[in-house]
Amino acid sequence: MALPHASSGQLIDVRPLGSQLTSAPSRAMMKTPGLELMRMVLPAGKSVPEHRVPGECTIQCLEGRVELISHGVTLLMRAGDLVYFEGGVVHALHAVEDSSLLVTILMRHED
After folding, report:
1. Cα-flanking dihedrals φ and ψ of residue 23, to 5°?
2. Where are the domains of the chain?
3. Are the beta carbons of 101 and 56 closer than 8 angstroms?
């Protein structure tokens, strides 16, 4: 069964999960042909290997601490930090603590 996505005009709760963080799954919150919004939950010690997405994207740390590896450097993201990537930029993530991230991806369209 597919999880429901938010519709136009519907509120989306992106507040920190707090005590529910360790049991919450990652999930797509909204998806259209041009935009995808997801909450990624990363338990401490887990990683997302190097990858790229074709469209521009942002990653916002909602809670916890995550190492972001890109452009040859490692940055520590904490709650409130946000990073932007041009489409095609290689990046990886590693959770230092139980963490949740808000990921927004603009889908690349051929004209």
Report:
1. -110, -5
2. 36-106
3. no
For the stretch 9-24, pLDDT in tens is 889 899 999 999 999 9
Distance between CA 24 and CA 17 in Å, rounded? 8
Residues 37-51: pLDDT tens digits? 999 999 999 999 999
Is pLDDT of 2 > 60? no
CATH class of 36-106: mainly beta
Q: Which two tokens stand for residue 5?
A: 């996505």
Go through the chain and tell me how many residues it has.
Answer: 111
Instruction: Give strand ranges (E) for the chain.
Output: 27-31, 35-42, 47-51, 57-63, 65-70, 73-78, 82-85, 91-95, 99-106
- Global pTM value: 0.90
